[in-house]
Design brief:
With 228 residues, this protein is of the alpha/beta class. The protein has one domain (2-223): Spore Coat Polysaccharide Biosynthesis Protein SpsA, Chain A, CATH 3.90.550.10. The protein has 7 helices and 11 strands. It has helices at residues 30-39, 56-66, 81-94, 115-128, 170-182, 191-195, 216-223, and strands at 2-8, 24-25, 28-29, 46-51, 71-76, 102-107, 130-136, 141-144, 150-154, 160-169, 202-205. The protein has a 7-stranded mixed β-sheet with strand order 5-4-1-6-10-7-11, sandwiched between helices. The protein has a two-stranded antiparallel ribbon with strand order 2-3. The chain has a two-stranded antiparallel sheet with strand order 8-9. A hairpin with a 5-residue loop joins strand 8 and strand 9 (150-154). The chain is globular. The mean pLDDT is 93.
């Protein structure tokens, strides 16, 4: 079984008071496009939404209006992305996920993930236990010191920019999250927690248009790419 946890509980702090997941694009909220990508992918069995409790009614209306069939639960998020992801992971177990199943973690504001990318990351996670969708760096990378002077130039051929989904086999995901919380470690993405266990994570190259919507100008970028 393949279950995706869609994390849609951010406060959009960098969006100038725009609640990005409900921002209307071509008559539909941004989160609709993210959910649709997984709803239409035959390999995905279940979808779990994790968000703010104040948005539950909006989520309920969204599910009914667009007839989403794969959403099995809407879960209240935690104080951090990591805690929210872990709550989604616990819900996946409650919904029947077992050892060997693949759990995908997806940002609600990454609406341009493709059916092919989802297929590839599931395939690699089944083979390698953990995989991350990531874009190869296109620009020269500079590492700066604390005074903003260049410390060194990092060869870009080995640099990737992590996106979502990130996929982890269920039992490995549980170990990784539980270890992180025991150590009071807060990661910036999901597979980082797997890396801390000394496990390898496979990189799956991502399309450059598969970006996380972070700033208002990102919305202008995706408007011409999303299909109603």
């Amino acid at each position: 079984m393949n279950i995706v946890i869609i994390l849609a509980g951010g406060d959009s702090s960098r969006m100038k008071k725009i609640n990005k997941i409900f921002y209307s694009i071509k008559g539909k909220p941004l989160i609709y496009y993210t959910i649709s990508a997984f709803e239409k992918q035959p390999l995905i069995n279940k979808v779990i939404l994790v968000g703010r409790k104040i948005d539950f009614k909006k989520f309920s209306n969204l599910i009914k209006k667009y007839l989403f069939k794969k959403i099995t639960a809407v879960v209240e998020g935690g104080k951090s992305r990591q805690e929210s992801a872990f709550r989604g992971l616990n819900e996946a177990e409650k919904s029947g996920a077992k050892s060997g199943d693949i759990i995908l973690f997806q940002n609600g504001c990454n609406p341009l993930v493709s059916k092919e990318e989802i297929f590839k990351i599931i395939k690699e996670a089944k083979k390698n236990k953990a995989a991350v969708l990531a874009q190869p760096a296109r620009d020269t990378i500079k590492k700066a010191d604390r005074n903003k002077f260049v410390e060194k130039t990092i060869p870009r051929k080995s640099i990737y920019l992590a996106q979502t989904p990130q996929a982890i086999e269920l039992s490995l995901a549980k170990r990784a999250f539980e270890k992180a919380f025991t150590d009071n470690f807060m990661g910036t993405d999901d597979v980082m927690l797997v890396e801390r266990l000394g496990k390898k994570v496979k990189i799956v190259p991502a399309d450059f248009k598969n970006i996380k919507i972070t700033y208002p100008e990102d919305l202008d970028f995706i408007k011409g790419l999303l299909k109603p």
